């Protein structure tokens, strides 16, 4: 489990210095003391206001910048807190404050999951104070998280690479299948064409055979009178059929009963 508590050594320094009459008379330190009291009561916004007043009195106060950074950190305003810790690094003449400021800067980066930046800050804190076990622990944690992040990125890159590879492979397969289907359709078309040609040929052949097999008309053996009677009978039969056909056509189409 990561350690993300912030260093508060400057509170102790501020309280110790408050015992001196010169510090008590200093307006900057007065606001810092008030800010510390509010901070201990977890009134971080009010503490912030007092630390800012202290810095208005003395912009070079490393303690004021450091403690303002702590109050901002507690309000989850990590970027603003980092700025104040950086200011304290510029003005501090105490290695203990510098080490703790670097440690807290590492924490602000850790909250943003910026592992490389947090690693750099923890290493800087350990360079100043090699005995800081909190910084050592957080350094190891940040390094493990960075490795995990890189491993996940590599897995994602490989997955995307394989996905693109499979996509290209599927596209090639689809193109081949498409060409194969096209060739198959053309082959089937040619086969159907040949088959139709053969069928037409066979049909014409059958027709020729039927024509050849059709019996030759035989000359009529009927005399003139028989022929006339036959024609008259056929004419009457045809007339009956025509009358019957007309009768059928003249009938209305039946409709379904309306029950």
How would you concisely characterize the structure shown here?
By secondary structure, this protein is mostly helical. About 80% of the residues lie in helices and about 0% in strands. Mean pLDDT is about 80; it is low at about 10-20 and about 240-259.
Report on this structure:
There is one protein chain. The chain has helices at 9-17, 21-24, 27-40, 44-57, 62-74, 78-91, 95-111, 115-128, 133-213, 224-250. The protein is mainly α. The longest helix has 81 residues, at 133-213. The chain is rod-shaped, with a radius of gyration of 53 Å. Helix 5 runs parallel beside helix 7.
Name the features.
rod-shaped; 10 helices; single chain; 259 residues; mainly alpha
Strands, count? 0
How far apart the termini lie comes to: 87 Å
Instruction: List unreliable stretches of 5+ residues.
Output: 12-21, 242-259
What order do the helices and strands follow? HHHHHHHHHH
Shape: rod-shaped
Backbone structural class = mainly alpha
User: What is the C-alpha radius of gyration, as a whole number of Å?
Assistant: 53 Å
Number of helices: 10
What is the helix content? over 70%
Percent range for β-strand residues: under 5%
Biggest sheet descriptor: none
Mean pLDDT: 78
Helix and strand topology:
Layout: H1 9-17, H2 21-24, H3 27-40, H4 44-57, H5 62-74, H6 78-91, H7 95-111, H8 115-128, H9 133-213, H10 224-250
Helix pairs in contact: 3-4, 3-5, 4-5, 5-6, 5-7, 6-7, 7-8, 8-9
